[in-house]
């Protein structure tokens, strides 16, 4: 009996089952309701015809492995797992219900998200994978269909059904598991895998987001395997000339055939992308000749893109703004609108006399309302930055090591986005030790659940 003709399910355990949300190779996903805590959930079941083919024990074990793998990963960018159960004829996992759509649907027809959105989603994916890898879980099937975008624009990773958990004997060397177009070379060859396999697959996803094309897209699985194992895809900037060429080197290294040549961790890849984006901004600043005339600060057009870029120019003389101050604002803004942030900030700095005025001029260029609010809020209370602008002092300093502050910022970024570095530097000037810094950063997170997860991640609870 096919997944489409299976008899309707009214309940599973205590859960009241509603409509079917989707069906995959292994199971069907339903919308359901938990009457005990009055919460809507998603329930994934093993398809019944698979349980009737003599491999029931193996499939149930793999399904339970999914629940164990995802259940140990409490992270804002990983779909939460609440419960696991079995009935006489099926097994099921109760999961967080994500209202939104898959990244696959976003990319259908070769559509390309804007650069800021693509890099933001990729940063969230890397944060989720890094969190999983640190806890011994390798996803093994990173692809757009397993990446969900919720109604707030946040990315969440789902489907750990073929995940490898360290110390588990369920997945073994020699088993080729995954989705061909996104698999790493070692998955095709049957070699042992590690975190770098997930990062290769993630890089394939980023390549598609940036270019609208798949890095490996043969007419058959054999053709795809040949490409993954032996062929190098075109440079991203060759497929999409609007891309900063600085991203090419980072992405192509992440797609290296040899694992040893790739980035060793999700954080290393994330840092390399951040540095490449900064280099692209500096190069655009140095090499682009723009008409030197006065112009109002650029605002987003109705489609969210920046308009009138040809009217921007850099200041012809030094202003009262220290480079370090402008650099912090530019770094935060670049995460939202790309390399043009440097030109935009420098131009608006000519017209602003204090920090509040500069932030007010720059903020409208951020298309996302949520990101714009975070940007404004971060600088509104930044006393140390304001002091450096006015020239009345050099601002407060911190005795905390810079690497500790940056590490804390990376953890905070999972919950508040690219503004995290600005917040971390500000709070570091007011914290006497790393514990106090973590406490201050936790207080900056408005969502109670996210605040709790951050506190747990940094060891506050």
What's the CATH C level of the largest domain?
Answer: Mainly Alpha
Task: Name the CATH superfamily classification of the largest domain.
Answer: Transferase(Phosphotransferase) domain 1
The percentage of residues in β strands lies in 5-15%
> Any idea what the radius of gyration is?
24 Å
> Overall pLDDT, averaged?
77
Tell the overall outline.
globular
Instruction: Determine the number of helices (DSSP H or I, runs of at least 4 residues).
Output: 19
Query: What sequence of helices (H) and strands (E) makes up the elements?
Result: EEEEHHEEEHHEEEEHHHHHHHHHHHHHHH
Layout of helices and strands, plus pairs?
Blueprint: E1 11-12, E2 15-23, E3 27-34, E4 39-46, H1 48-51, H2 56-71, E5 81-86, E6 91-96, E7 100-102, H3 103-107, H4 115-134, E8 137-138, E9 147-150, E10 155-157, E11 164-165, H5 185-189, H6 195-211, H7 221-230, H8 236-239, H9 246-254, H10 266-287, H11 323-337, H12 340-349, H13 355-362, H14 369-380, H15 383-390, H16 402-416, H17 420-428, H18 434-443, H19 448-457
Antiparallel strand pairs: 1-2, 2-3, 3-4, 4-6, 5-6, 7-9, 8-11, 9-10
Helix pairs in contact: 4-6, 4-10, 4-11, 9-10, 10-12, 11-12, 13-14, 16-17, 16-18, 17-18, 18-19
């Amino acid at each position: 009996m096919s997944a489409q003709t299976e008899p309707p399910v009214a309940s599973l355990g205590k859960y009241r089952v509603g409509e079917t949300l989707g069906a995959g190779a292994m199971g069907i996903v339903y919308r359901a309701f938990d009457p005990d805590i009055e919460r809507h959930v998603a329930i994934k079941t093993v398809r019944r015809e698979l349980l009737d083919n003599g491999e029931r024990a193996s499939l149930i074990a793999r399904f339970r492995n999914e629940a164990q793998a995802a259940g140990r990963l409490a992270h804002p960018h990983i779909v939460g797992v609440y419960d696991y159960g079995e009935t006489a004829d099926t097994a099921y996992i109760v999961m967080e219900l994500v209202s939104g759509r898959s990244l696959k649907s976003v990319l259908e027809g070769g559509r390309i998200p804007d650069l800021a959105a693509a890099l933001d989603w990729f940063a969230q994916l890397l944060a989720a994978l890094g969190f999983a890898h640190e806890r011994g879980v390798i996803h093994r099937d990173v692809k757009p269909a397993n990446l969900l975008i919720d109604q707030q624009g946040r990315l969440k990773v789902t489907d750990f059904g073929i995940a490898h958990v360290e110390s588990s004997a369920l997945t073994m060397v020699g088993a080729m598991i995954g989705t061909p177009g996104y698999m790493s070379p070692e998955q095709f060859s049957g070699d042992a895998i590690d975190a770098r396999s997930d990062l290769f697959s993630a890089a394939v996803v980023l390549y598609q987001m940036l270019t609208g094309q798949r890095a490996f897209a043969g007419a058959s699985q054999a053709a795809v395997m040949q490409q993954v194992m032996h062929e190098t895809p075109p440079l991203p900037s060759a497929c999409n000339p609007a891309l900063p060429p600085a991203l090419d080197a980072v992405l192509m290294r992440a797609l290296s055939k040899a694992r040893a040549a790739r980035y060793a961790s999700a954080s290393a890849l994330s840092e390399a992308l951040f540095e490449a984006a900064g280099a692209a901004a500096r190069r655009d600043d140095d090499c682009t000749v723009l008409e030197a005339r006065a112009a109002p600060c650029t605002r987003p057009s109705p489609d969210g893109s920046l308009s009138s870029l040809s009217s921007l120019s850099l200041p012809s003389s030094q202003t009262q703004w220290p480079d370090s101050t402008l650099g912090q604002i530019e770094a935060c803004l670049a995460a939202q609108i790309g390399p043009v942030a440097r030109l935009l900030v420098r131009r608006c700095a000519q017209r602003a006399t204090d920090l509040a005025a500069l932030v007010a001029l720059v903020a409208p260029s951020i298309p996302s309302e949520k990101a714009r609010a975070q940007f404004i809020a971060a600088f509104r209370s930044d006393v140390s930055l304001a002091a450096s602008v006015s020239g009345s002092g050099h601002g407060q300093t911190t005795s905390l090591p810079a690497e500790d502050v940056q590490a804390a910022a990376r953890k905070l970024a999972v919950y508040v986005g690219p503004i995290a570095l600005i917040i971390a530097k500000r709070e570091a000037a007011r914290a006497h030790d790393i514990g106090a810094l973590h406490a201050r950063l936790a207080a900056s997170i408005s969502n109670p659940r996210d605040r709790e997860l951050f506190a747990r991640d940094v060891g506050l609870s």
